[in-house]
């Protein structure tokens, strides 16, 4: 297990990297809906239709006894994500918390992987910096693991109408990402150097399915039920792990149901259709 001093060093290093001399003003209240949606896409890689107040996703059914896939999000009245948390388990165990900060937002994630009698713990601290208009323009990630500390900076670029279009990452984990949209502005595809996500929609614009492919795991989510706003409130998820075993490609598939509870700001009606 990595010593706690490395985690402390990571937090100290992040403070040194991010805090120039002088006070930093809090990010402005954002009135541009494109900026709000772009920030939410960067923070959580997704968006919700309607004036959502809170979102909670969790596993239901028999698999809920030993499978943890929780996501909780709190929204401001303008639709901007205020705070969020994610929990994943049982192995690896992943806990992540996102909170507002003077520069924009900051998230802290801890991952514990159990291999036999050994447990490896790593931490990732991400700081989301906004510009004077409230757009996220830079994310600084400080990762501590295996007695090492690494820094990655991601720089975000926007279209003239304030839709986030792509980012470039430099540092410990160099790479790129591109965001592609439907004509109605909904996020349709995310392409990155090491993975990609494709979302599909019904004819009337409701979320239908998404598939994310990484080098070793494929995630497939299919919506089963929607509320009146078109947001998915019940979905089936598959996680397919691919690996090489004695020269032969093998895979393990797990399936479970996810429920999404969404509360809205009044006046709004989003009962189940």
Automatic annotation (TrEMBL):
Residues 1-25 form the signal peptide. The keyword Signal applies. Keywords: Signal. It comes from the Bacteria. This is Lipoprotein.
């Amino acid at each position: 297990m990595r010593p706690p001093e490395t985690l402390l060093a990571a937090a100290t290093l992040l403070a040194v990297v991010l805090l120039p001399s002088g006070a930093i003003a809090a990010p402005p209240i954002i009135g541009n809906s494109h900026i709000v949606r772009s920030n939410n896409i960067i923070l959580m890689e997704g968006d919700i239709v309607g004036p959502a107040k809170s979102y909670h996703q969790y596993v239901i059914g028999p698999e809920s006894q030993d499978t943890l896939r929780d996501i909780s999000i709190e929204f401001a009245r303008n639709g901007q994500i205020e705070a969020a948390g994610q929990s994943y388990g049982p192995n690896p165990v992943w806990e992540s918390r996102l909170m507002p900060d003077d520069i924009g937002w900051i998230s802290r994630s801890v991952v514990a992987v159990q291999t036999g009698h050994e447990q490896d713990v790593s931490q990732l601290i991400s700081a989301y910096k906004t510009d004077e208009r409230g757009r996220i323009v830079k994310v600084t990630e400080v990762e501590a693991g295996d007695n090492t500390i690494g820094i990655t900076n991601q720089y975000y670029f926007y279209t003239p109408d304030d839709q986030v279009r792509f980012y470039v990452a430099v540092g410990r984990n160099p790479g790129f990402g591109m965001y592609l949209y439907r004509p109605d502005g909904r996020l349709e595809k995310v392409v990155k150097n090491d993975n990609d996500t494709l979302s599909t929609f019904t004819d009337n614009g409701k979320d239908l399915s998404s598939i994310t492919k990484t080098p070793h795991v494929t995630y497939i989510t299919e919506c089963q039920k929607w509320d009146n706003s078109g947001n998915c409130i019940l979905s089936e998820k598959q996680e397919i792990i691919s690996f090489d075993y004695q020269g032969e490609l093998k895979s393990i598939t797990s399936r479970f149901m996810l429920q999404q509870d969404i509360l809205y700001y009044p006046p709004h009606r989003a009962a189940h259709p």
